[in-house]
């Protein structure tokens, strides 16, 4: 299905204490990557408005924390029904502002709903633990909300990345302040309206628009207890450093340069589409996208299948656009730089014309570079576009060495039919998420999402079981009600 672009410019503002409030600072345009047309105008909050918003969140959180989790979760059941009802409309809007295809827009929202389902189940699975540790004495775990927490999200998943954390925090009893990307703020209106319609009391979800000024004001506010961040490594480090210098907990997910180890015994019919879809999906603008193919030995049959699939992608319906013209220009220049360093262009996305009527959009078709040298830009820098750099390797040892030398550590996959080789790569690759014959190894819930090395600052993961201790405190309660006749060390 083609993406429906908004016919009129959408006014977007800030969701403060249950109402949409026009920002009193500046205004930014939202431009569709599809055709370069303005589709939205977003007003940014003043410092006073940010202070007021967080004060309202603090007040609302006190009552919410005193509400049992089973009651809090009812809002999330309603929310799920609303998001399923509005799936098509939300998917079109997020695709229109981020450049995704309609199907990618819907898939991102579905993944967000999967995390919502995990949050819904916390009432039944996160029941703590209790043990009689000494005669008549019990120890017990109790999970306590933190208060007001904040999350800063990137442009490339306008609904999924916020949905990784909003429902979990609402279930845990926190109030949540969300700062969406200034490039894709329109979807935040749909998500916040859905929570409102689901019955979430006012003040528990706040949306503050803008860029670094808004982020810094949120981090610095003493009422905000924890900061989550998803975006580039450069900004992840800035946010992590600022938040932790103030003694706050921070979990900041950064960028990636993901490798795929392709072995001669892989099944070409599995490797071809798996690897092609990994580097072309979301036009390569996802932190789990394949970027470097470590081709070990004779893998020509699999490479032919990758080429076959990637060269058939139709711009506009099967593959989306790049977020900005500047990003497209950067990618085109980086392809030229790789060529100048000796890479061969097996598939040249620069030559494919934009879809009819969308000539002003930011289009680049799939591009495959072969014989890329390790250590060069195409092999080491996060390009964030539909470009696959093939690095030829003698053996698995060399492939693992190249993978391990990356600064990043988000995802790494291996395509093989050898269990021993798959096991070796999964043990030795420096990555938080490993795929075996899977090109985009995003863990499905309840398995947590998160990388290592320069792809993550802070401990824990952003979703699933390993996110819970980040978004809450664990209180340990030791209880004794009766005097014991015999003496033991706890009596
Ligand atoms: P970005 O770092 O430019 O922006 C992310 C957020 O930070 C936005 O909300 C933005 O407004 C804010 N921001 C920008 N500059 C800031 C500053 N100086 N101080 C404080 N806040 C600032 O990232 P992006 O371009 O929106 O997203 C693409 C990047 O995100 C890629 O690097 C991609 O790999 C990464 N990403 C990572 C994951 C993951 O799970 N690891 C998921 C999605 C995207």
Q: What can you see in these coordinates?
A:
- The protein starts with 9 loop residues before the first strand and ends in an 11-residue tail after the last strand.
- Helix 3 packs antiparallel against helix 6, helix 4 (102-125) runs parallel beside helix 5 and helix 9 (268-280) packs across helix 10.
- 38% of the residues lie in helices and 22% in strands.
- The strands form five sheets. The protein has a seven-stranded mixed sheet, with helices on both faces. A six-stranded mixed sheet has the order 10-9-8-11-12-20, sandwiched between helices. Strands 1-5-4 form a three-stranded mixed sheet, with no helix packed on it.
- It is α/β, with parallel strands linked by helices and 491 residues long.
- The chain has helices at residues 47-65, 69-85, 87-98, 102-125, 160-172, 186-197, 212-220, 233-245, 268-280, 300-311, 325-340, 377-380, 396-404, 419-428, 465-468, and strands at residues 10-12, 14-16, 19-21, 27-31, 38-43, 130-134, 137-145, 148-152, 175-179, 205-207, 224-230, 249-253, 258-262, 290-296, 344-347, 367-370, 387-393, 411-415, 433-436, 456-457, 472-480.
- It folds into two domains: 10-253 and 455-475, Aldehyde Dehydrogenase, Chain A, domain 1, CATH 3.40.605.10; 258-436, Aldehyde Dehydrogenase, Chain A, domain 2, CATH 3.40.309.10.
- The longest helix has 24 residues, at 102-125.
- Residues 152-157, 161, 179, 181-182, 211-212, 215, 230-232, 235, 238-239, 253-256, 287, 382, 384, 410, 451, 455 line the site of nicotinamide-adenine-dinucleotide.
- Nicotinamide-adenine-dinucleotide binds next to helix 7 and helix 8.
